[in-house]
Specification:
2 copies of one chain form a homodimer.
Chain A (H helix, E strand, L loop, with lengths): L6 H4 L6 H21 L4 H7 L10 H11 L13 H31 L6 H24 L4 H23 L8 H26 L4 H28 L2 H4 L5 H4 L5 H7 L4 H12 L3 H11 L1 H19 L7 H15 L3
Helix pairs in contact in A: 2-4, 2-5, 4-5, 4-8, 4-16, 5-6, 5-8, 7-8, 8-9, 9-15, 9-16, 12-15, 15-16
Chain lengths: 338, 338
Amino acid sequence: MSVLRFDMIAKLDQAEPLAEAIRSELVQVTAVFDAQLESDQPCVNALARHIEHYRGKMLRPMLVLLSAAATDRWPAGLARILPGHRVLAATVEMIHMATLVHDDVLDEAELRRKGRTINALSGNEAAVMLGDYLISNAFHLCSSLGDPRLNLALGKVTNTLCEGELVQLSNRGNWELDEPTYFEIVRRKTASLVGASCELGAELAGANDQVSRALGRFGEDLGIAFQIQDDVLDLMGTDDEVGKSTGRDLAKGKLTLPVVKLLRGECSDSRVRALDLIQSNDAVGLRAKVVESGSLEAARNVALGLVHQAKGQLACVPPGPVRDLLHTMADAVVDRSA
Amino acid sequence: MSVLRFDMIAKLDQAEPLAEAIRSELVQVTAVFDAQLESDQPCVNALARHIEHYRGKMLRPMLVLLSAAATDRWPAGLARILPGHRVLAATVEMIHMATLVHDDVLDEAELRRKGRTINALSGNEAAVMLGDYLISNAFHLCSSLGDPRLNLALGKVTNTLCEGELVQLSNRGNWELDEPTYFEIVRRKTASLVGASCELGAELAGANDQVSRALGRFGEDLGIAFQIQDDVLDLMGTDDEVGKSTGRDLAKGKLTLPVVKLLRGECSDSRVRALDLIQSNDAVGLRAKVVESGSLEAARNVALGLVHQAKGQLACVPPGPVRDLLHTMADAVVDRSA
């Protein structure tokens, strides 16, 4: 975590005081994150350094901090960001990274299936144990705040998150997957933690239930939109991305929203052809089909609608640069290409 | 968890009031355990039922309950077992089962290496996700007690446990492993949770620090002895056991105490021959060697010494049936054949 990527706030003017404040907060969040993972065992520290490869956009920590700042008028809202918010922000990022590391077990297994089995075993185990180390440290870090409600809330969120992963796993290769099930999976595996980052960030800042819940709904809508955009990118990624990501969902038998819409479309004939493309793993043909059928646009529109709905949830927070930044982040979630 | 195995108290007279009390407490612990894992998602409940295959001796829950009862004279000590102890007992068992489930990822990977790859991928992922679900629920369950010290203590224990697994992983195939490193691994991956089960059980019963720490040390010594006995069984298991367990440690490049002692022995010539046996995976030859060299007996004596030391830790708790049962359990740890 030594080098940070703040794609979201990079969009903003460097000199902008809010961007500066958040940037310096995130540096402290990173310090809390790194200090928590420090072990007296060198081999543990060496492995923990691998998680830099999983470093993301720091979306969840930013939402924790901004949700705190959003609970009061500018610039007073900045004073709502307490030391506890850095701990909470580092905790949600650690939970998020644990899920990425364990998702990686699946990727390594993929490689294994293609025959590259050397070190795959230890790599697989290292990923499992490192993920466990992250989950454990996340709960330990959160416990250091001494607030049982936070532990209980985050424990519930991670239960929900695991349930989402398990439901997704049980629906692998289920080409009959309907939209309600798709959204239930996404709400649990992705939106629950993003929503909790906002809601708990606001709660810890002393916001009332109405404001905390509104920010929680903002985060949930944002999280679902984020996952739909991930789906779209995985399906439609450019040639540059093909190597690293494109088509992975399909290869894993995971249906993305555009494909769900395509397969559930009215025309049974087009469904048959779509299934052929999927089963013959013809990503190019499938891309053409989701475009031609309009199911890609339909999925995009769902994401855009969720972003619009998310922004609407913020009506009850004071207007100003913090709310503006949250709006900007909401737009960025569906505009991004990586 | 619907059917329980209480190997330890099965040794006792069924009518014995303490055995009866513990048996009925464990039934309630199991109810707490099952209720915690109950999900609104049928596929999650179906997978969670798999953990019955990982069901153990309920050693840790028993130690939580008995450590509480040991903090006062018989029979008043029984009243020291509070509803919170059932929650703590279910929590430590859930943490333990999570480690068993994730160890299973390794076993499935073994199968995969032998070429049986059909369903290995999904089996592997299911094991990872189920383990995560158990860890998450363990922390959520513990948080329901509303005692931040418990969360912090258990978070620290699971950090230590993961570190033990990671150090063991990094020493896989290290035939130079010395005893201090071996004991550091065992203390972290096994003894830390057993010790915490005793110490936290006593703390929750209102014991003073001296008694809580003494019970914690009892559990730590017991945990190390338990692991050494596991090592011995894995290495020397009967033909019946061979199929399911014997030699697994060696196959995974994990050194057991008898083999550590054999390889670190004075006689460099015998070390060379021992290494030949290990690298040619000659379990039968290796067994003969650890017996002939006396390193098996030496390892057994370390375990017996730890059991003796563990019993000595209990000098500060009131004499009576509870302390007697803890002594019986300590002996059973090294007497068991499974």
